[in-house]
Amino acid sequence: MEWDQASASCCTVGGKATPAARRARLAAGRVGGPLLFGRIWERLGIDAVLDELLKDRGFEFAVERAAFAAVLHRLFVSGSDRDCAAWMKDYEIAGVEALELHRFYRAMGWLGEEIEEKAEGAPAPRCVKDLIEEKLFERRRDLFTDLSAVFMDTTSLSFYGEGGETLGERGYSKILWGGG
Question: Which of 4, 58, 135, 154 has its Cα between 20 and 30 A from that of 67?
Fold first, then answer.
């Protein structure tokens, strides 16, 4: 089999791939990204945190694997869950073989599931995603003697109220250049 795959990569007849070449190309999957980010996923404990939060739930599919595939998709190409379900077929990602599009929708729905009422002054109610972030921070907290850096996604940041006209004077509005 290994010889077939090796030889098939260069086997053409009259400029057309031989059947062996077509089979080898169809059987190949990308492995580097899933292996690298899979290791990071495990070392950060994301799989363990998700498994802990999912232990009493009755999902009939691997929610953690759906979340992992969705994260990989967003890291590599971005796009919707629908795109992810098609995209992952080109990659060798352990445990996602049986995942269909509706499973991604259910997994993302679980991540956004509200866990308590919206607190007064809070921008949104707390959801499962917030719980995951807190548990991940707790797992890594011993690395920090003091919280001295906070990273924020400022992709869609807006400034309102007193000082807003000077705080946001640098850069460009996404609304003005059509990126919103």
Answer: 154
Find the angle CA(46)-CA(127)-CA(58) to the nearest 5 degrees.
Answer: 70
Contacts 24+ apart (CB under 8 A), 74-79: 75/33, 75/37, 76/33
Q: Which two tokens stand for residue 46?
A: 């994301």
pLDDT digits (tens, 9 = 90+) for 67-94: 999 999 988 887 788 888 888 888 889 9
Listed by start position, the domains of the chain span 1-30, 32-148
Amino acid, single-letter form, for residue 176: L
Per-residue pLDDT at 50 exceeds 70:
yes
Distance CA 97, CA 85 (A): 10
Residue with tokens 């260069």: 10
Q: Which residues are bridge partners to 25 per DSSP?
A: none
The pLDDT of residue 103: 92
Tell me which residue of 138, 118, 125 sits closest to 53, measured CA to CA. Answer: 138
Among 68, 86, 87, smallest CA distance to 77 is for 87
Distance of CA 171 to the CA centre of its chain: 28
> Residue 91 in contact with residue 34, Cβ under 8 Å?
yes
Element (H, E) at 2: helix 2-8
Res 109: pLDDT? 94
Residue 151 pLDDT greater than 80, yes or no: no
Please give the model's pTM, rounded to 2 decimal places: 0.64
